[in-house]
Structures are given as structure tokens and as C-alpha cells.
Amino acid sequence: xxxxxxxxxxxxxxxxxxxxxxxxxxxxxxxxxxxxxxxxxxxxxxxxxxxxxxxxxxxxxxxxxxxxxxxxxxxxxxxxxxxxxxxxxxxxxxxxxxxxxxxxxxxxxxxxxxxxxxxxxxxxxxxxxxxxxxxxxxxxxxxxxxxxxxxxxxxxxxxxxxxxxxxxxxxxxxxxxxxxxxxxxxxxxxxxxxxxxxxxxxxxxxxxxxxxxxxxxxxxxxxxxxxxxxxxxxxxxxxxxxxxxxxxxxxxxxxxxxxxxxxxxxxxxxxxxxxxxxxxxxxxxxxxxxxxxxxxxxxxxxxxxxxxxxxxxxxxxxxxxxxxxxxxxxxxxxxxxxxxxxxxxxxxxxxxxxxxxxxxxxxxxxxxxxx
Length: 371
Prior knowledge:
Blueprint: E1 5-22, E2 27-40, E3 45-49, H1 63-80, H2 87-92, H3 100-117, H4 122-126, E4 132-134, E5 137-139, H5 145-157, E6 163-166, H6 173-182, E7 188-191, H7 201-205, E8 215-216, H8 225-233, E9 238-240, H9 247-256, E10 261-264, H10 266-269, H11 272-284, E11 288-291, H12 298-308, E12 331-332, E13 341-343, E14 353-354, H13 356-362, E15 363-370
Parallel strand pairs: 5-6, 6-7, 7-8, 8-9, 9-10, 10-11
Antiparallel strand pairs: 1-2, 1-15, 2-3, 4-13, 12-14
Helix pairs in contact: 1-3, 9-11
């Protein structure tokens, strides 16, 4: 039986973060993105969310390229192919090279629609088993060390299971040393967002004394060779993020011993199906994985929660509560964290209702496409 997608509605939203978020790439206050709505003949609605930024800081994709690829190419492929299961969308989209975030946004809406039509949760549709997930928090670069320590202390008081701190050259060892001094037993990781090279190896070696959980993507965004050299030289586990955009990338990184941990982001790898393939590969090779965040609103956050219920997601992810990022989210109830834990919703699909009033209020443009 096919999944009878009748219409795809694209909504461009603009939402303002509660606080500016700074990394080695830059600072973001307003986020523009798409909510994708896949509608079937019975009026069921499946939802996906794009995660590309307005500027190509993280990968080459942007909000504008996502719209171009979705509307000019991917919609056409959906019209030309019957879909019996969401996993087929990955192969349907293969003629279009890369553009993983655009693919993931549409695929996610079809996964949600499929689960709702089957009257099952998205977690169950993916093969997840957990009823709750542990979550950590990502803290951007702060104006002062005092500000950073205050945010960490607040996050610990709220029960988050792991603290991720953004670093870059000149804002790394000394800051992390002070953090470790104040929080000697807290699980702490550093995220470099590819800000270093092998010429910085001596500086990166100094991080070994701080007992970090991991250092995430210290070297180039597309590298797995130099990361293998770095991992051989330091004790701190390397986690790859930007370098892993497919299960094939993950296979090569594991074979080269470029990392000990992999961060899986649905948008970065092209969708839930590819994320599952990476999960299965890492499970076979005993590689820890966790789910990263892209400052998602409620729909994308719900997809992350469902993915994290798969068994090899052994480390707390970045899926914090809605209120940490948004004054009002576009789902109800909003995602909440209780002592560092999110309870997995038990309603069909993503498990959260869409707050249509909020969705309408944040929409700055919409278009409907027949499939």
C-alpha cells in the first residue's frame, strides 16, 4: 500500500531565540527555516523541519538553497514515484547530489505521516525502544568566563546530564581548565566546529588533562584523515560531526580510527533513514553515538527525540527543552526536561500536536504543491 501524499505545504518561519547563540562560525539571534507538511487523502498531516541556517556556516546549505532544491527538484521526484515506506525516499532522492538538509526536511514529514497512518509513534516506526531519553545541553561562547560558569551552574541545577562548551583558538584550554576546576565531576565536552588544524596539536594535547568526555570536530569539516592522526596522538576521544554526512562516511571514519564517537544530526546526514543506517553501523562496531541539535523548533526537536530512542544512542544528546530556546514553540505540549530526562511521547507520529496559532504567527511565507 502506498503512502498517498496529496499535497506538500512549505511554510517559511522566522523565530527569535531567547538568547543569541555563538560558535566559532558566528552568532545567531533570529532563525529562519521551513516547516514541511505532508498531507494525505484523509487529511492526515505529517510534519518535518529544515535545519539549514541563512548563512552557510555549518555546511554549504542555506535556507534559500533548501527552498530551491525542495521545490525545483525533490517535489518532482516525489510526484514521479510511489512511496510504500519512508525508507524508500532516500533512494528516490539519490539522483540529486548532497543537499542533505533539504532531503531530510521532506523525508521527515513523510516519516511522520507514515507513523500517523499506522497509528504508531515515530519512535516505534524507527525501531526505538526507550520510553525516556537523557539529554545534555550545548552552551555557546559567552562574553566572560563568569557568564559561562553561571550558565553551567544553572544547567546542572536543572539536571542536564552533560555540558557541551563551544571553543575556538584562544578560547579553549584556559577556559576549560577553569570550568573543570569549578565542576570537577561534571561530564563536560568541547565542541570546536572545525576551528583547528594539525598545527594546533600541542594545544589540543593539553586538553587531555581535563578529563573531557570528548572533543567534537576539532579539524576540518570534511576531514577524516587528519582526525585519525590527531586521535592517535591524544587520549581525549574525538567525536566527528560535520565530517559524517552518510553511513559511508561513518564506515571510512571507523576503519581509519578517526574518532571514537559520532554525533548524528538528522539534517546533516540526509534524513532519518540514513541516520538509522549510521546507527546500525556504529552498533555493529561498538561506536558510541548521540543526537546533535541544530537549534530546532518543536517539530525538529520531536524528530530528534524519536531517533534517540534507538539503542546505540548511548550518550546524552543536545535535545534540550523548548523553553531554553523559544518564548513560544510551535508544538503543544512543548518539550520539557525533568531532571535531565525527556519522556518520549506516546501519541502517533511525532507525538506532539502542532500549535497552529503559533505556527501561523511565525509564518512569513507559505506555498502548497500538489504531489
